[in-house]
Backbone:
DNA sequence: CTGTTAGCGCTTTCAA
DNA sequence: TTGAAAGCGCTAACAG
């Protein structure tokens, strides 16, 4: 019968082993570990040598317990469009590592019935130092209330609604939409149609506004026949494009306010026997995976999602570090990231007679 | 000058507070927390009452430190196709919560230069109880060696190569491919072309084998003119489809071994003035997001990625629990998950004269 | 610059 | 069925 001893639970060496090996106290090792300045260079080297020889790695749980913080950042996740989370992770993980944080993903979705009530519990048990909240969770009142109640530092990404004391990362949707429209104008288009998004979505309004800005700046009237409603879905894009292309004179360019609808507009263009981009230019917004999976590849606007995630982590980490060092300054409340215009093959000057 | 005391670091109540409130010792509270059997019912209720009243949540770091395990599962992530990670997270997070684990995502990509050497450090510092390893990391020898070296329980998802002592979750690619081919045969197709994947990818072979199985079982010769090489990319799909559709007699159906190539085949079909599915049936494999973003929507095979992730977590959790309870049995080494045939609009019986 | 002491909040061990 | 004592590995506070 094997008597299990309590020692040696940790797979490797502990701080004491290192201390002994280096002939110093555990405290000194701790100082070296945390890059504190007040250690003599010779001592530091001896400790680092010991760390290397014993292949020592600090135990996170112990460190967190002693420090009362975890260096965990929670990502409050609810199945946004595929691809989005992927980019988000790339950016967030990258910056987390640089800043010494770990990312813990927690799903905040409708998987369970009462998840909104459970979220508060989760936030407290998880011992996050802070959370980042991408859409669509960033506009969920219940979650935000729980985050507030837990008094948890957070940063929201691309929120629809603005909030007091709730720092966020946003893109310049309006400006980007304006730039896209300007690009079409520069190509020579005048009859530029726009497919809108659903009223419920904040981006619908800003993207439409950007289009209006550019059209007005170019001295063009907004023609109601060139503006079609949409729901950000493929199907709604088909209908909108069908209506737009049946009008006389038909538009020479369609600016769909997201990629799914733009892809639909291309399909509908083909059904109307139009060459794209020869007869009809179609552009989108988002640069989803589909944008390059179709033919012709879609001219669109890319939100630098990875960058946004990275900046969110950075903002949060700054805030946490400041908080730890007792600095009470509020810190940044908002960062705006510039989107990128991606010109591909679905856009060209209008046909000669157009 | 404010003297910061050390107490009350934890935002909420501690186990001692609960113990005091309930008039028992901390140990008894701990027993209730961990659902140990040897607590009198009345005591248990009193404790639970106190927990509720104080809104007590155990501190994970403390618990982990004392137990020498973390209930963290690492997800070794390296930017697979977008959408994949999304589904993976859904399944994994779901099961993690049920099993009482937390998921920590660690990127294992080429973001840094020497990541392969850093991975060992990461694995030990992170204090994971175990890791799950989806593609493409699951076939990275350096990572696998590091996981072995850290003696870390793990489960691989959809690995290309099999390994001793390395449990995994796989799909029945070969059977699924066979079923898809059978479906086309049942529709009445005989000249069924196949676009292969790159040799480097394990799935290429198994998917092709499934096609061969079904063709042979139907008593059909494998016609080299019906088999085209591909690279799982849109571009390679275009070329393959162009070649296949230029042959005489041309195939009535194209089975592309992934969706990207199938989407390309549809585009090429349109360029050849073919109605899809009236003149030409095109089917794919993977059910990526694009499959429903195009017109006509793609008939394809769906890997139940979320299910696979969930099963991976379950397998790992089982193993960890067994290990904790001292049960040395090896546990399952492999689970096979059945893929699903998704019939949409890109497939139909061959044309009358076909 | 370095060490000692005293915990962090929880669980294991052992005794009652 | 319960509790007291002794850590888990690390770090803050204070002393030297």
Residues:
């Amino acid at each position: 019968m094997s008597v299990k001893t309590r020692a040696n639970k940790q797979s490797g060496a502990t701080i004491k082993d290192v201390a002994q090996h280096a002939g110093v106290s555990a405290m000194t090792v701790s100082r070296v570990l945390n890059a504190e300045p007040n250690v003599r260079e010779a001592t530091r080297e001896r400790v680092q040598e010991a760390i290397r020889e014993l292949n020592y790695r600090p135990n996170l749980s112990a460190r967190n317990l002693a420090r009362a913080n975890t260096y965990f950042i929670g990502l409050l996740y609810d199945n946004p469009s595929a691809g989005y989370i992927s980019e988000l992770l790339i950016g967030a993980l990258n910056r987390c590592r640089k800043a010494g944080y770990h990312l813990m993903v927690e799903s905040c979705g409708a998987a369970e019935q009462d998840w909104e009530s459970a979220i508060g519990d989760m936030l407290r048990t998880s011992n996050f130092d802070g959370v980042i909240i991408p859409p669509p969770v960033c506009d969920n009142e219940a979650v935000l209330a729980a985050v507030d109640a837990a008094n948890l530092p957070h940063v929201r990404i691309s929120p629809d609604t603005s909030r007091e004391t709730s720092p966020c990362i946003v893109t310049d949707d309006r400006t980007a939409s304006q730039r896209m429209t300007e690009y079409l104008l520069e190509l020579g288009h005048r009859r530029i149609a726009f497919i809108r998004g659903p009223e419920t979505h904040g981006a619908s309004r800003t993207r439409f506004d950007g289009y209006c800005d550019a059209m007005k700046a170019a001295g063009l009237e907004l023609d109601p026949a060139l503006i079609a409603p949409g729901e950000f879905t493929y199907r709604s894009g088909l209908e909108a494009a069908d209506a737009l292309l049946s009008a006389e004179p038909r538009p020479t360019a369609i600016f769909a306010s997201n990629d799914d609808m733009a892809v639909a507009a291309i399909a509908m263009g083909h059904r109307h026997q139009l060459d794209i981009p020869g007869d009809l230019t179609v552009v989108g917004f988002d640069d989803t995976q589909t944008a390059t999976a179709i033919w012709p590849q879609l001219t669109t606007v890319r939100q630098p999602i990875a960058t946004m995630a990275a900046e969110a982590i950075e903002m949060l980490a700054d805030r946490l570090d400041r908080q730890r060092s007792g600095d009470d300054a509020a810190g940044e409340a908002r960062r705006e990231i510039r989107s990128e215009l991606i010109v591909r093959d679905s856009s060209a000057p209008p046909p000669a007679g157009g």
The two ends of chain A are 90 Å apart (CA to CA). The longest helix of chain A spans residues 305-324.
